[in-house]
Design a protein that fits this description.
Chains A, B: One of its GO terms (cellular component) is cytosol. The structure is a homodimer. By secondary structure, chain A is of the alpha/beta class. The first copy, chain A, has 11 helices and 20 strands. The first copy, chain A, has 2 domains: about 5-175, Acetylglutamate kinase-like (Carbamate kinase), CATH 3.40.1160.10; about 245-410, 2-Layer Sandwich (VC0802-like), CATH 3.30.2130. Helix content of chain A is about 35%, strand content about 25%. The longest helix of chain A is centred in the N-terminal third of the chain and has 25 residues, at about 65-85. Chain A is globular. The interface of A and B includes residues 58, 69, 83, 94 and 98 of A.
């Protein structure tokens, strides 16, 4: 008998019918002999409805009040799911984050979990109950309601699984697992049976938004086996595990890409200490998130400095950079929004030389010009013109043997 | 500087605009130098929306889960009102029933308040904040969310006022006070400046549903001055006070009536001990609420037994009574749904003989036949055919000098 934590997102509980389907799925796990703790999000649309009410009153509402407001969304779902379980003859109890003492810091809207008091849950499980917990929320030491930020229900589920020493944390979504790349770009993309936490982190941060990144970090840190599954179809999903548990490891696990990047370049900056800070400092102070950063030595004692930001921040960043470039006496500032970042991810590349070389050759063979390159221990990212996205992904997918076998395709 | 508890019902907070108007009203009280604690209901329609969701899942949902579900309604309002106050520059904080520890028993859906921990509220008031508390809800000793039953926000407000030793508890509704009778029946009905708790109890239980009856009992018990006012218009409202504080007391304060009564009569029951129980016992066991009960000695060692129930229970009660009447060997069972109960209420009638006689004469002069009479210390009730309702109320209103002076009309 295992202890499973299951998490269902807003779409999975978006109507009373879907809540009923979730109840059926939970009961199947119970019938298989497992104890089940369920973490739920607000019904889809509900959080936005509440935020909209708040914004009608105040453009920037007090964060404490906003958290108390939107936390009601998950509370509603827990009660409804608990009723749906009881209707099917399964004993169940719902809890808010405060009731199971998911203690967080006081950073309203983006609180971090500090501890969970599990004794209420454990007692209920012993009594044969399914425990339904509101995701996304907690309580600070003063008793104020806090929320963990968008997607925080994943984090709630992982934290509960860690605190309860659960055998598996199952994240039910609208996809049936983690894929080698986006199937909308490469129809031969294949569901991975397993992937390591580190690979998953790289995939998630690169735009494969299956899981909230903080929940993956959390799961890795506390060694909680995490599984991504579909709440609309049966199947084994993708298991996210520690590296040493992976038996047969492909060199490359997947190809991630991110369309939402824009590039800014300052050419011919006099190369002196503090140049990078002079440019990026004011950008960061304006709360603009910077992704890739590259600096190359140029000619004549000058340097070329490039970084990428999200599209939404591009114009603002360009203004700041132009101002700084003038102060620094740089030669030229340029920018480009028509780019895409493509990344190979795989823990296997640590022990395999030549992955980068092979990647560059594949792109060269397709006449795709590389604008930027950045590497880390388990990933290689390139920036190319966005028109090459599909061509690049498909070529790499085939070259690194990620394609599904022909026989298994629909 | 006084401490005022203000309570706003669902209609008063039914939209973001109305929540804004409530914020304005709260701030006026602050500007007058008073400390203010606000108790709010769910936005109108919200509780029914949530109950409807629950009923789609389960016809009779678990009461614990239902309470957790519907308690979100008030929580939403508290956060929104707190934001509206902050937007206007007034410091404010919202609290759920659990957060201010409104401790109740575990009778879900109809819990009773046992204690309130006021130190959080007191600290906030000292810091210059308006405290916004969710009405209708509390928490039991296990930490489960409870609700007090429909209209329970009034009770929350009175209990908070009692615990905080507030100077006044103001209940804002869609009427501007307590009237001598229903203005829709008698246009010359007059707003009372004050009324005693006992009179208010009789008025409320007789169908003048301005306040939840339990809140009036509570206010009387703890001697909390209670005022009923309109949230849509300015005015002094009606103050509900202890009898000995009433300076100038009219003999009759008002005329209440109840259209929702049906009469059942058993004639010719052999008059032996236990007859009343034989008839009413099975009725009560079927959860039918009985209002008036009369028993008259009849002829030939038999007795006539009459009682009234709500219309909705009439058919069911009739079936039970027929069965019992047969067992008891009664002569006849009859019933009547076309009746109305009219009551004169006033603490002054204690010291004034002849009120009943005057009432019966007024009705006789209008040729109105009285079917039943029942009296208590501060009220006299008669049951008459429902077609006489308006005539009876207007005649009594004039005869007992309750009419508004002509000059003040329209």
């Amino acid at each position: 008998m295992a202890l499973i934590v299951q998490k269902y997102g807003g779409t999975s509980v978006g109507s009373v019918e879907r809540i009923g389907a979730v109840a059926d799925r939970v009961i199947r796990a119970r019938q298989a002999g497992d104890d089940v703790v369920v973490v739920v999000s607000a019904m889809s649309g509900e959080t936005n409805r509440l935020i909209d009410l708040a914004k009608q009153i105040q453009e920037r509402p007090c964060e404490r009040e906003l958290d108390s407001l939107i936390a009601t969304g998950e509370q509603v779902t827990t009660a409804l799911l608990s009723m749906a379980l009881q209707k099917r003859g399964q004993k169940a109890r719902s809890y808010t984050g405060a009731q199971v003492k998911i203690l967080t810091d006081s950073a309203f809207n983006k609180a971090r979990i500090q501890s969970i008091d599990t004794h209420v849950i454990t007692d209920d499980l012993k009594a044969g109950r399914v425990v339904v917990v509101a995701g996304f929320q907690g309580v600070n030491a003063n008793g104020d309601i806090t929320t963990l930020g968008r997607g925080g229900s994943d984090t709630s589920a992982v934290a509960l699984a860690a605190a309860l020493n659960a055998d598996e944390c199952q994240i039910y979504t609208d996809v049936d697992g983690v894929y080698t790349t986006d199937p909308r770009v490469e129809p031969r993309a294949r569901r991975l049976d397993q992937i390591t936490f580190e690979e998953m982190l790289e995939m998630a941060s690169l735009g494969s938004k299956v899981l909230q990144i903080r929940s993956v970090e959390f799961a890795g840190k506390y060694n909680v086996p995490l599984r991504v599954l579909s709440s609309f179809a049966d199947g084994p999903g993708t298991l996210i595990t520690l590296e040493d548990e992976v038996v047969e490891q492909a060199v490359i696990s997947g190809i991630a890409f991110n369309r939402d990047e824009a590039q800014l370049t300052v050419n011919g900056v006099p190369d002196s200490p503090g140049v990078a800070y002079s440019i990026l400092g004011p950008v960061a102070e304006s709360n603009i998130e910077v992704d890739m950063v590259l600096q190359n030595t140029g000619r004549d004692g000058t340097t070329d400095f490039t970084f990428t930001v999200q599209h939404v921040d591009y114009e603002k960043a360009l203004g700041i950079v132009r101002e700084q470039a003038e102060k620094l006496g740089a030669r030229e500032v340029s920018g480009n929004t028509k780019i895409v970042k493509i990344s190979l991810v795989g823990v296997g590349m640590r022990s395999h030389a030549g992955i980068a070389a092979k990647m560059f050759k594949v792109l060269a063979d397709e006449q795709i010009n590389i604008r930027m390159i950045s590497t880390s221990e388990i990933k290689i990212s390139v920036v190319v013109d966005d028109k090459y996205l599909e061509l690049a992904v498909r070529s790499l997918h085939e070259a690194f043997e990620l394609d599904a076998p022909i026989a298994s395709i629909g």
